[in-house]
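Technical note accompanying the year-one report. For the benefit of new consortium partners, we illustrate the data format agreed upon in the data management plan: each record pairs a sequence with a structure-token string. No post-processing was applied to the example shown here.
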Amino acid sequence: MPNTAVLATSGVDWSQVHAVKLLGVALGALILFWAIKRMFGGK
């Protein structure tokens, strides 16, 4: 990430960024598990 310094100086709330990232990962994992269950005939 070359523009980390630019982001850091523009007043980005990193706790919010990490929260959004974690939410995205959790959502992706949920969808992945759901897709795997569907693939193996689960409901």
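Partners are asked to follow this layout when depositing records. The chain has a mean pLDDT of 82.
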